[in-house]
């Protein structure tokens, strides 16, 4: 578990007293708080990867926006540090305390507020679980415009706070486009009601955009308003076996031409990633042979025969042109789940390795596999990879090709400072040279904030700090994270 090297608790933040706890109890009641119960606190103090752990003594689970407001107002006056928490599936250590910050969990705010089945506009509490919203919408012929492997636990409020991307972004775009309104509570307790259900509203600064991707540092999101698409009646999933990353790019380019408006996902993973998946799952490849790269393609449309014909023609062309060495179209729901299961199961499989160094980076699509190869070579040159006794087990690549988003994961035999020193800042310098981003969709948290200058100019960082100081002058929200402190 990371021990936050180089961080000290900032004593400007008040240590909790029983008076504080009594006041909080008066707001949320006995069932709305967990205090000094180590077992119950554990799940809120430890992140999904079991990599970061705080020592919070108090978790608050407000049920209303007013309760969130009362909590924050008091914390601001008393200078008590707070970590807003959704589903706690974040991967950059942003959702758990470093020390004894109070955790404000949104799990108690999980009601759907309204849905208009003409426009598809949904308003809901921030604590609604993504998959629950998607299932609820499914009954009405609609769906959420984003999908991630963490859908069963992550909250829509956490999705907004991290500006989550995920598997459907190539089709439905980012939350900056689909989110129409937000309700949030500022550190001083001010409730910002901007729960617009308008697709067009050009009246003043679009302030909701500031909260999307703010990772709990300028306010607690308590409600969202989002445009949801019709659930397609015809969904097809195919898997290609491909020999080179050049061919992955050709397959992607051709899919945009031939599948065009029905393309809803284009994901890739290399065979190294697949070997890690196989190691932790008794699953054999859905194909007879194994290939250096795999491409997962999903189409979503309204006419099964039309879509099937387009997809089959595309696959035949991929095979004829030698771009794909093998191709499988899922014949039923279980085969679709099996194909998606590998891609969505990579995170969990990697999480079962003794240690894993995770990087979520974006760059020109053509550079994605170069990054993997350069990292393998760099670690080999550094004596950390390539021999039986090397600390690094492998270097694997997968991700959202259409978004230029690579998930570079480096499983190792243990958390080894020598390996980290070889990776960072080498990788961030490499990404910066490609004019890429050191964090494509997972955000900054405590893992990437010190490297922000590799992706943002000094003037931008200075302006971000100004925003933060205006909205959270006492710095009570998610201290130590998101913006560089060193
Ligand atoms: P948490 O982890 O609880 O919090 C994340 C951050 O948001 C923290 O800084 C927290 O303080 C803040 N926060 C949470 N709720 C609020 C709120 N209501 N108001 C203000 N701040 C808040 N991410 C992707 O982008 N794309 C993927 O494809 C993807 N796949 C994943 C697959 C797996 C298996 C896992 C474990 C994670 C994946 N993630 C992915 C990362 C993670 O799921 C997302 O970042 C997700 O949006 C986090 O939501 P959450 O509710 O769990 O937030
Ligand atoms: C994905 C999940 C996190 C990771 O699978 O798309 O965002 O790096 C990732 O495995
Ligand atoms: Zn991802």
Automatic annotation (TrEMBL):
Its EC number is 1.1.99.39. The keyword Mitochondrion applies. Its cofactor is FAD. Keywords: FAD, Flavoprotein, Metal-binding, Mitochondrion, Oxidoreductase, Transit peptide, Zinc. One of its GO terms (molecular function) is D-lactate dehydrogenase (cytochrome) activity. One of its GO terms (cellular component) is mitochondrion. It is found in: Mitochondrion. Residues 52-231 form the FAD-binding PCMH-type domain. It holds the Pfam family FAD-oxidase_C. It is an enzyme of class 1 (oxidoreductase). InterPro entries: FAD-bd_oxidored_4_C, FAD-bd_PCMH, FAD-bd_PCMH-like_sf, FAD-bd_PCMH_sub1, FAD-bd_PCMH_sub2, FAD-linked_Oxase-like_C, FAD-oxidored/transferase_4, Oxid_FAD_bind_N. Its main location: mitochondrion. GO terms for biological process: malate metabolic process. It comes from the Eukaryota. It catalyses: (R)-lactate + 2 Fe(III)-[cytochrome c] = 2 Fe(II)-[cytochrome c] + pyruvate + 2 H(+); (R)-malate + A = oxaloacetate + AH2. The keyword Transmembrane helix does not apply. Catalyzes the oxidation of D-2-hydroxyglutarate (D-2-HG) to alpha-ketoglutarate. Also catalyzes the oxidation of other D-2-hydroxyacids, such as D-malate (D-MAL) and D-lactate (D-LAC). Exhibits high activities towards D-2-HG and D-MAL but a very weak activity towards D-LAC. Belongs to the FAD-binding oxidoreductase/transferase type 4 family. This is D-2-hydroxyglutarate dehydrogenase, mitochondrial. The lineage of its organism: Eukaryota, Fungi, Fungi incertae sedis, Mucoromycota, Mucoromycotina.
